[in-house]
Design a protein that fits this description.
The structure holds 2 protein chains of 2 kinds. By secondary structure, chain A is α/β, with parallel strands linked by helices. Chain A folds into 2 domains: 117 residues, no CATH class; 106 residues, 3-Layer(aba) Sandwich (Rossmann fold), CATH 3.40.50. Chain A is 53% helix and 12% strand. Chain B has a 6-stranded parallel β-sheet, sandwiched between helices. Chain B has a 4-stranded mixed β-sheet with strand order 8-5-6-9. Chain B has a 3-stranded antiparallel β-sheet with strand order 11-12-13. Chain B is α/β, with parallel strands linked by helices. The chains are: A alpha/beta, B alpha/beta. At the A-B interface, helix 1, helix 2, strand 2, helix 3 and helix 4 of A face helix 1, helix 18, helix 19, helix 20 and helix 21 of B. Bound molecules: iron/sulfur cluster. The site of iron/sulfur cluster (SF4) has 14 residues of chain B, from helix 14.
Chain lengths: 242, 493
């Protein structure tokens, strides 16, 4: 299958390893990955912060970059949710139905949805011999409703010990610009998330949104906890020796 | 004219009582976050509330269908609000009640104060005081020499000074006992902190007032238009006494509480008790219609309060907030509320729904009101639990847009506006974006030590106060991609 990768601007700039992992993983599974170079930002941050005119411009740019692509895959649940859920709202706010139509014409999948629902695989042949806990991000569960798809993928990884995260469904406190505007509340929230993570004795926290992982990982790093954060794609791309 | 607040500022200057200037949410939240006792109380109360709601909802196979019915009934009722309110007025009047229409808080205060003074009473009982609090009634009555008495246990506790406002701060029993011993008339010196004992102490104090009170002011949960019936749910039964013993009963009700018929009410009598306290039915459900000679109050007044509601109703997205039936389920699941409690949201509507409703009712001019839509991570837990399916995050994002627009054309643009505009300008064009990627990466790497950035400049500084940022990579994804052998890049670029 030919897959257009929407890497998400955040990953493009800060987490290229995630994009490389998606590419490697999909190619390993026998699919062709293309990267439409006109892609930038879907407009999520501007939209959720209230800059709706700017969000509309960015959404139009996104639509133009992906026009005519049949299948779009992204390693960002919140960006997938933006296109699927927010584009019709952005269109309404901007009185520009073309933005909503563009979202309808595109099939945008978050990576775990694409693997499990479209490709029908849960065992992607990965090997990752570490103790891992999984944080289900708000956009992936309450937005996209990916349910346990990421967990099914993780359970099929050889060598991986999956430990359950207590109060997993609670928001990590990132919330885009919330983390800056309400920094104290945001930190109070991530402090609890970090407490739960450390209680699992996991070496790695995994998730399907690098934005939330930057938040959780940022707090873990400040504490010099030694716990790493990794995007699901990066774990699934690992095949180990041989 | 009625003085509208302790400061005695003339009414009519604004539509509400003189509010003490509230700080921005983030500022007010700081105090709450540092209050250990509050944090512990909130954590256990919200945790218990969540569990009770989940248990009570899971008992019903048709919970999702009920939620959908609740949503649809409220939407239809709000769409035909004018018709239902007129029907309600006719029915209440026929049943011997008197209906007053109040466009704003000042008008509502004037009406209620006038009614109370006409009775010659100097004390007023309050039941379900949210609407009274919304119109700033206590201060208005105090200004004409009338004292108000709380009757709800949580409100009594709040009134004794456990918390600066409202029933939502969840003080622990030991603290309540201290407060009672200090401030509750007739509290026995051997009072224990057993909740049953505490309730009994309040009841003994209240009974005296019930028997002597001449006037009560209450809120309502629902109004049934077809019969003109008021519906009030409460868990202690104190309210019921206030509704029946005083000679004059004055209900202050938001216009959005009207439902067309008893069939509609049936849906909400399932949704509300299960969502609020996780009960199959609230212990005391009172309904009354006008007056009944020889039984209960001799005079009944209904003050229908708009106070910004029709303005909210005119907003296609924001109006969904008016479906709220006041169950507090969204407060219990909100990770922000769990840590800040209700105070930072302001005195009337708290939690996520308060953040979605207050800026609609009061506007977004003040820094406090403008900060409310941003007091959420948009995690969506509230929307998932709401019994009338209010998509609170959608409303908050909508209101954020309103706040930004209202400040876009100020003579001096805010640093945030400049940053967001700059970001959109950069991200919106491939060449600019790629240049920024190259330069930004280089700059950011200068800030990093040992693979992490510990201090960020400017607006980003609040991030690095408590969180690191990984050092940006040497090469962005797109430059890596561009460097792949062209065969590996696939056909079409
Ligand atoms: S908005 Fe909150 S308080 Fe209102 S009905 Fe929904 S869950 Fe209950």
């Amino acid at each position: 299958m030919r897959v257009a990768l929407f890497v998400a601007c955040f990953n493009d700039a800060l987490f290229p390893g995630t994009g490389r992992a998606v590419t490697g993983l999909l190619e390993r599974l026998g699919h062709e990955v293309v990267f439409p170079p006109g892609q930038g930002c879907c407009g999520q941050m501007h939209w959720t912060t209230g800059y709706h005119r700017e969000a509309a411009d960015l959404a139009r740019g996104f639509a133009a970059a992906f026009e005519g692509r049949e299948v779009v895959v992204t390693p960002s649940a919140s960006c997938a949710a933006t296109v699927r859920e927010a584009f019709p709202r952005i269109a309404r706010a901007a009185r520009d139905p073309a933005i909503a139509r563009a979202a309808e014409d595109l099939a945008v999948y978050e990576l775990s949805e694409f693997l499990v629902d479209v490709l029908g695989v849960t065992d992607v042949g990965a090997y990752f011999p570490h103790r891992v806990t999984y944080h289900p991000t708000c956009h992936s569960t309450r937005g996209l409703r990916v349910g346990d798809r990421p967990l099914r993928l993780l359970r099929a990884v050889r060598g991986l010990e999956l430990v359950e995260l207590p109060a997993a469904g609670e928001c990590c406190g990132f919330g885009g610009t919330f983390a800056l505007k309400n920094a104290d509340v945001s930190v109070a929230m991530v402090a609890d998330k970090v407490r739960h993570v450390r209680g699992t004795s996991a070496d790695v926290v995994c998730s399907v949104d690098n934005s939330c992982l930057t938040h959780i990982g940022g707090a873990l790093s400040r504490l010099r906890s030694g716990v790493r954060v990794m995007h699901l794609a990066e774990i699934l791309a690992e095949t180990g020796p041989g | 004219m009625t003085p509208s607040g302790p400061a005695g500022r003339a009414p009519g200057a604004g539509d509400g009582p003189v509010p003490p200037p509230m700080p921005k949410f983030a500022t007010a939240a700081r105090d709450a976050l540092a209050d250990t006792r509050l944090r512990r109380g909130l954590r256990s109360a919200t945790e218990a509330g969540r569990a009770r709601q989940a248990g009570a909802a899971a008992e019903l196979d048709d919970w999702e269908a009920l939620r959908e019915a609740g949503r649809a009934i409220k939407d239809a009722a709000l769409l035909g609000l004018d018709v239902h309110l007129e029907e309600l007025e006719r029915a209440v009047t026929e049943a011997g009640g008197t209906v007053h229409w109040a466009a704003g808080a000042a008008e509502a205060r004037r009406v209620v104060t006038g009614l109370v003074r006409a009775t010659g009473e100097t004390g007023v009982l309050k039941v379900k005081p949210a609407a009274a609090r919304e119109i700033g009634l206590d201060a208005a009555l105090a200004a004409v020499g009338v004292t108000t008495h709380e009757t709800d246990l949580a409100e009594v506790i709040a009134g004794l000074g456990a918390v600066p406002d409202g029933p939502d701060a969840h003080p622990d029993p030991a603290r309540i006992r201290e407060l009672f011993l200090r401030g509750l008339p007739g509290a026995p010196p051997d009072l224990t902190d057993d909740p049953a004992d505490l309730v009994a102490a309040v009841r003994a104090d209240l009974r005296e007032r019930f028997l002597t009170a001449g006037v009560a002011v209450c809120g309502v949960d629902f109004m049934v238009a077809e019969t003109g019936t008021m519906v009030l749910l409460e868990s202690e039964g104190n309210g019921r006494m206030c509704l029946t013993l005083p000679g004059t009963l004055i209900a202050v009700a938001g216009i959005e509480t009207v439902v067309p018929s008893w069939t509609d009410l049936e849906v909400f009598l399932q949704l509300l008790p299960r969502s609020s306290a996780g009960e199959r039915m609230t212990p005391a459900v009172s309904t009354w219609t006008g007056i009944t000679p020889g039984d209960g109050p001799r005079a009944f007044h209904l003050v229908l309060l708009d106070n910004g509601r029709t303005k909210a109703l005119a907003d296609e997205i924001g109006r969904a907030a008016l479906r709220c039936i006041g169950c507090s389920a969204c407060l219990n699941v909100c990770p922000v509320y769990e840590r800040t409690g209700g105070v930072p949201y302001g005195p009337v509507h708290q939690g996520p729904i308060g953040a979605a409703l207050t800026p609609q009712l009061r506007g977004v001019k003040s820094a406090h009101h403008a900060s409310l839509p941003f007091a959420s991570t948009l995690c969506g837990a509230c929307a998932d639990v709401c019994p009338v399916k209010i998509d609170i995050p959608e409303i908050l994002v909508h209101l954020r847009g309103r706040v930004v627009e209202s400040r876009r054309h100020r003579p001096v643009p805010s640093p945030e506006l400049l940053m967001m505009r700059g970001a959109a300008w950069t991200l919106g064009d491939r060449r600019r974006y790629e240049t920024a990627l190259r330069r930004g990466t280089r700059w950011a790497r200068l800030l990093s030590r040992g693979g992490r950035i510990r201090r960020l400049p400017g607006l980003l500084g609040t991030w690095s106060d408590a969180r690191d940022l990984p050092a940006p990579p040497a090469e962005s994804f797109r430059f890596w991609w561009a460097g792949r052998p062209s065969r590996a890049r696939g056909g079409r670029p």
